[in-house]
Write a structure and sequence with these properties.
The chain has six helices and no strands. It has 161 residues and is an all-alpha fold.
Length: 161
């Protein structure tokens, strides 16, 4: 066997080693991507859970939330402020979910479902007033997505009636 033959075998072996390394790195990248998606889903769930738990664990907060959503209820200035903060919390949690979906970190269906879940809160008297006075502060694309979700919610509500 000549030196040239050995060099050719060496090149072949090194080429195969590079190919195996690339396949392994590709597999690792897929696993890391899946782990990142799971972590983002978990974080999104944690953020939403904090809001829901604040209502579930505190009767005063739950009562405030229910009263604030009723168009015929009256709230004093402090409770109005507290209710608007609850709306802000759910609104910006939804924005974070939407932004994660836009970045490819969450599935788009998840963001759409959260937008549709937000819409009923923003169609109440207080919710609509809050949204109109605050939507200028958010991402314009998010505001368009929220407006679309509100239209879809209203259309679905009309069909049900």
């Amino acid at each position: 066997m000549t030196l040239s033959d050995l060099a050719s075998i060496g090149s072949l072996v090194s080429g195969m080693a590079v190919l195996v390394s690339l396949a392994y790195l590709s597999l690792q990248a897929r696993h890391n991507n899946a782990a990142l998606h799971r972590a983002e889903n978990n974080e999104s769930q944690n953020q939403a859970s904090m809001f829901r738990l604040s209502i579930a664990e505190n009767r005063d907060v739950a009562q405030l939330w229910l009263l604030g959503l009723r168009d015929d209820s009256e709230l004093d200035g402090v409770d109005e402020f507290r209710f608007e903060n609850l709306l802000s919390e759910i609104f910006f949690n939804t924005f974070n979910l939407w932004d994660r979906a836009r970045s490819g970190l969450l599935g788009n269906a998840s963001a759409i479902n959260w937008l549709l879940a937000l819409a009923p809160f923003l169609t109440t008297k207080r919710g609509a007033r809050w949204y109109e006075s605050n939507k200028g502060f958010c991402d314009p694309d998010f505001a368009l997505a929220v407006d679309k979700a509100i239209r879809e919610f209203r259309t679905a509500a009309v069909k049900v009636q």
